[in-house]
DNA sequence: GTGTCAAATTATAATGATTTTAATTTATTT
DNA sequence: AAATAAATTAAAATCATTATAATTTGACAC
């Protein structure tokens, strides 16, 4: 964990940003909830537990900054809220999501499923792909078995 | 065009909704701007030109209804606004988008690029796919050539 | 160490998209 | 035509997010 904080610190420094206590607290919350797809409000409340003086606006600004630096991915599942996911180490791309329409659970897929599709897009539409976002909506394993 | 309105009318009736004048006006705007990825506000302004008495809330309600009936797809490119695209006739799936990070243009891809990927997801993660959304972010043909 | 400057943060207010409410209108059924 | 339900309007409310102004922090010069 300290290791990853160090890396993020370096990423910030490389663009002449600082890892302030508030930013560090925010990053720590993200690291501790890597699977959780937290909203800005969620992050705010969790950070507040350890650092009660932090403001919501600061959390928003920090998440925005981390998003620009590609430390986190800002995602949107269609409810009105943005969610923030830590990008996995070494991942060049956004990871994919399986959203269950029954129970609302969200599962992540790390594998890059789109290498081939991306090549098609690049050649067929002459579009230079930088990133992609892919979400499947459907019924998760759990909810399938409940229908028996 | 009248043809497609008729179809949508039937879809509404099949769920015991009516195609009111306001709803029809809204659908017509969507048909006339099929490539445009209009926001609710955009639709509202366009509908207002022909039917000045319509309210914004009605447009929202209509778009929400059409979205539930899968007549339109509600999409979200990460700016704070929802956009509404008519689903192509016979399309079972959401279509894909190429969003240019330089000029903001959005191009649609009708082809189903994900048949194979979907099968992988279904078998490997035991997730029953109902729909998907795929967006590529990158640089469009136009913006590429401007960089010469 | 003290003063100065820029960056960051706080608390609050403002914004903008969307939703809700209550009152009114329209369409449908009896 | 009266009664009922569905849809619409206009206005207010809500919620996420962003901007503002004042304050604090930290780095560097003296």
TrEMBL record, chains A, B:
InterPro entries: FUR (IPR002481), Fur_C (IPR043135), WH-like_DNA-bd_sf (IPR036388), WH_DNA-bd_sf (IPR036390). Keywords: DNA-binding, Iron, Metal-binding, Repressor, Transcription, Transcription regulation, Zinc. Fe cation binds at residue 132. GO terms for biological process: negative regulation of DNA-templated transcription; regulation of secondary metabolite biosynthetic process. Belongs to the Fur family. GO terms for molecular function: DNA-binding transcription factor activity; transcription cis-regulatory region binding; zinc ion binding. Transmembrane segments: none annotated. It comes from Tenuibacillus multivorans. Binds 1 zinc ion per subunit. Binds 1 Mn(2+) or Fe(2+) ion per subunit. Zn(2+) binds at residues 100, 103, 140, 143. This is Fur family transcriptional regulator, ferric uptake regulator. Its cofactor is Zn(2+); Mn(2+); Fe(2+). Pfam families: FUR.
């Amino acid at each position: 964990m300290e290791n990853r904080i160090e890396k993020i610190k370096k990423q910030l420094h490389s663009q002449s940003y600082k890892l302030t206590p508030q930013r560090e607290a925010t990053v720590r919350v993200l690291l501790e909830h890597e699977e959780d797809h937290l909203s800005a409000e969620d992050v705010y409340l969790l950070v507040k537990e350890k650092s009660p003086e932090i403001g919501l606006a600061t959390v928003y600004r920090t998440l925005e900054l981390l998003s620009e630096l590609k430390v986190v991915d800002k995602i949107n599942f269609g409810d009105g809220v943005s969610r923030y996911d830590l990008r996995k180490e070494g991942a060049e791309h956004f990871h994919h999501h399986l959203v269950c329409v029954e129970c609302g659970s969200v599962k992540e897929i790390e594998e890059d499923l789109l290498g081939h599709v991306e090549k098609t897009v690049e050649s067929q539409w002459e579009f230079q792909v930088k990133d992609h976002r892919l979400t499947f909506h459907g019924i998760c394993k759990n909810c399938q078995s409940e229908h028996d």
